Every structure is written in structure tokens, then in C-alpha cells.
Amino acid sequence: MKKALPIGIKNYRKLKEDDYYSIDKSLIIKEFLDRKTEVTLITRPRRFGKTLNMSMMAEFFDITKDSKELFKDTKIMKTEYASILNQYPTVFISFADAKRNQNDIVKEIKLQLRNEYDRYSHIFNNLTRFEKEEYEDIINHSLKLSNKTLDNISNVLSFLMKILEKYYGKRVMVFIDEYDTPFIEAHVGKFYDEIRNGLALLLHNALKTSDSLQYALLTGIQRVAKENIFSDLNNPVVCTVNDKRYSQYFGFNEDEVKELLKYYGFELNEQVKEMYDGYHIGDNEIYNPWSLINYADAKELKPYWVNTSANKMIRYAMSKADASFKDGYNKLMINGYLDTRVVLETSFYEVSTTPCLWGLFINAGYLTIEKEIRANRYRIVIPNQEVAEDFQSLTAYYLNVSDTYLTDMFDGLRLEDENMFIEAYQNILLTMPSYHDLISENSYHMMMLGMSAWLSNDYEIISNKEAGVGRCDIILKAKKDDLASYIIEFKYSDNEKEDLDKLANQAVKQIKDNKYDVGLDGKVIYIGLGHYHKQVKMKWMEKDS
């Protein structure tokens, strides 16, 4: 009988004791100890195995646990560090569920801290007078759920660490998973100022000023730079997705994917690669583990990575973006790549620049770095088909159009259904907030070009390229034999009495006269579109018909 797939399993002990399928990532512990960095932050997209890895590391170090059986066949036990299994007082908290509204975030943070206090309740029996006074204040006030703020939690974690060191005679290992989730959620929810100081001081006092810290490891999507959490620490290390350090431990490499798929009766073919491959982390090619285990379970090649939390964050950021981002976004959609400056180490909501926004797209998993051009300048791409499909909803939001209409419009092209195409296109025009932006042929051209990102898996998108004896507006060159290619030409009039049918026919005539179809094989369809503001008429004609 095959082992069960660990879908949604975030607890390492449960993973091993219940004998789920697992891939050994335990050598992350060796790298962590070899480096001896006091505080390390590793940034990765959601659902890349951060929580499970953090749970594994906490299990390895935790002095209150017996983890011999969990690690008996792992790579870390074949290293010199096998002897320190379960030898350190350890704090492990996760802010992954600190989401939604302010009350929910405050409650979740306090619950995480209360769980650690409960777990170590035996260490508080022999406190000094002043330690006891501080402990009672924490229990009776700081961690009270009825207190809906974080204003008085600044010493909660550092005090626990101090008493742990006193009790066990060893400094403390600290693991904080998804540390940035409360900051991001509060920023998007517009209550950032209400939680920032308390949470920042909690982390600052534990990671910067505490003498009881041995090593700390944090994970998140991005670095929170302005809260002084990381400033003035001894050799802090921030490992972004572009860093070689720890690059192989989050997500699956190709050999691990082959092994997993083979175990469940699949193979790593080109279709699987196109759907799930494409992430570049450090010098490793990485697959999203969530997608692969769901594919092996459901046995269906489809998107599984729906990053709703990051989607909300990016939508908010896109709404604040400047003109340079819009220009870059259009180039990315047209060419399939963008050469641009990227800042990965600073969050967009703190420094609202276009390079930081591209960094957010990369840190959140929507884009990946294909190559470095020079310092802080990279070629960025959408990693795979799965992400491209999730990208479509972002594009619809960005263009302020309905993704349902976009789906119908481009299904009309795939199915060669002219009525479906023109009805959806007309609905898009009618539901756009204003026609004042539609002031020329180029306005409609650029709008269609941005929407055409939805077709990048099936078509090569060509715009304003010399073809025949002129420059065509848009060519959609089919990548698959069973699809037709399209040539789209736009015409516009600012005269409401203009015959739009006549304009559409002129557009098709221009396509034919200028031989824009040179070099296109298979079936080719001409589309001429005549516009007056939100009104449109279309001429649809198959080549040689």
C-alpha cells in the first residue's frame, strides 16, 4: 500500500509518526548550525514547505521532546550534529494564521505565545520576587485575550527565553514561521499602526536585545525593514529567493520530483514541467511542493496553487503603482519576460517603488528570476502555466475588467466562435469605468494587448511588428496545430455618426492588402474592429475565404 500524501500536513511529528510520504530536508539543520548566524530570515512564497521545515527544526532541537524515532533514518543523523538532538530549549511559533481583521490577528499572536507558556509551565515554579511579578503581569494582562491590543506584549517572548535559559542552563533556539503575515495583513486591512509597535517590539526584544538567544530562524514572504527588528543585530542574514544559502531546502528539485512521481505511478514529462516547473531559487531549479503532491493525489494536471493571501497583497500594491510599473507590466505581458531593476530585500508597503513591487511579485511566487543582468537588474518571467493562470485574475483586476468576460472573449478565439468573442469584447468596453481613456486606435490596441496575457500559453503574442509591407496591430500566432492564428487590426473614429461596420471592413482590407499574414501557417483569421468610444463593430474573416 502506498504512503499517504502529506496534503496540508505542517507538523513534522505527525508527518513521520503517521508515515506520510516525505522528502528528507534535514540537512537544513546542518547548514543552520554550520553558519552560526545569530538571526536568519529566509523568504519564500507561501506553500513552499516553510512551516513543515520549521516544525522539523523545532522537533530536532527541543529539549522537552524525544525525537529519536522521527530522525532515525534522516541525513542529519549521519553528521556530527546527531549528538545535539533534543538538547536545546526551543521556542516555535507560527503567525501563518494571523490573518483577517485586527481582533483575529491579535488573538492568534497571543494564542501562539500562550501555547509556549503553557508548554513550559514547569519552568516558572522557582522565580525570584521580581521575576514572579513580571510573570504574573504577563499572564494576567499581556496575554489576556480580552485585551484586544498588542501594546503590552513587548517582553513576553524575551522573558520566556530568559527563564528558559535559567532553568536549562542553555541559551534558546527560536523559530518564528511566517513572521511577516501580521504586518502584511494589517497593512492591507488599514490597521497597521494599531499592531506595528507591539509586534515589532516583541520581535526586537527577543532577537536583538535578549542575551538568552542562541540562534533564531524566521521565515516569511519578505523582509520587514523599517521596524528595527533586524537593525544592529550581530551578522543578520536575509536569504531571499535569489540567495544560494538554503536554496535547496524549500520546494522540490527535479530529482525529488521524479522520485515522488515514480512512487505514485507518474513520470516527469514535458506537460508536468510546463505546468509546475520554472522557479529559480539560488542556483537551484525548484518545483512548488504543494502543486506536485496535489497532482500526485488528484491525478489531474491542473493548477493547485491559489495564493489568495499574496493575491490580495499584490492587488493592493498594484493599485498604488506608478506609470513605470504599468509600462513594465505591459512589456512582461507582451514579451513573456521583463528586464528590470528588482529589490528583494525591502517590502513594497514600506518603500513603494516599482523595483520593490517587482520584488514582491518574485517573493510571493508570481514571478521568478531567469537570470541576473547586473547588480539588482534581472530578467524576470512567469515561472509556469499554473502561475500564468492565476496571473490572469491579476491582469483582469489591473485592467479593471471582469475575468468572466475575459474568459469568454478568449474562449471565443480558441473555439473560433465570433459571436462569443464580440459579445464578450463589447461587454468589456461597456463595463469599463470610463470611455475617456479610449481616445485613439492605440488605446484599444494597448488594452487588448494587456488582456492577451491570458493567451500566452496557447499563442505567441506579436505587436507592432513589421509583417508583409507594414506593421500589424496584434498577431496571435498559434502554438498548437489545432488552434487558428489571428490578426487583429483596430480602427477608431471620434465621430459618433461614423459607420463602424465600414471601419471594421477597412481594418480587414488593410490586413489583406499589407499581407500581415506572411509567415503564418495553418488556419488564419482576420479580425477588424471599428470603434467609437464604447461602441464597436467587427469584421471576422478567414484567410482565403
Structural description of this entry:
By secondary structure, the chain is α/β, with parallel strands linked by helices. The protein is built from 20 helices and 17 strands. The protein has helices at about 10-15, 25-35, 50-60, 70, 100-120, 130-140, 155-170, 180-190, 190-210, 255-265, 270-275, 290-300, 310-320, 325-335, 355-365, 385-400, 405-415, 420-430, 440-450, 500-515; strands spanning about 40-45, 90-95, 170-175, 215-220, 235-240, 280, 285, 335-340, 370-375, 375-380, 460-465, 465, 470, 475-480, 485-490, 525-530, 535-540. The protein has a 5-stranded parallel sheet with strand order 2-3-4-1-5. A 5-stranded mixed sheet has the order 11-14-15-16-17. A 3-stranded antiparallel sheet has the order 8-10-9. Helix 7 runs parallel beside helix 9, helix 14 crosses helix 19 (about 440-450) and helix 17 runs antiparallel to helix 18 (about 420-430). The chain is elongated, with a radius of gyration of 28 Å. The N and C termini lie far apart (about 60 Å).
SSE layout and pairings?
Elements: H1 12-17, H2 27-35, E1 39-43, H3 50-61, H4 68-71, E2 90-94, H5 102-119, H6 129-142, H7 156-168, E3 172-177, H8 181-188, H9 192-209, E4 213-220, E5 237-239, H10 254-263, H11 270-276, E6 279-281, E7 284-286, H12 289-298, H13 308-319, H14 323-335, E8 337-341, H15 354-363, E9 368-374, E10 377-381, H16 385-399, H17 403-414, H18 418-431, H19 441-451, E11 459-463, E12 466-467, E13 470-471, E14 474-478, E15 485-492, H20 500-513, E16 524-532, E17 535-542
Parallel strand pairs: 1-4, 1-5, 2-3, 3-4, 15-16
Antiparallel strand pairs: 6-7, 8-10, 9-10, 11-14, 12-13, 14-15, 16-17
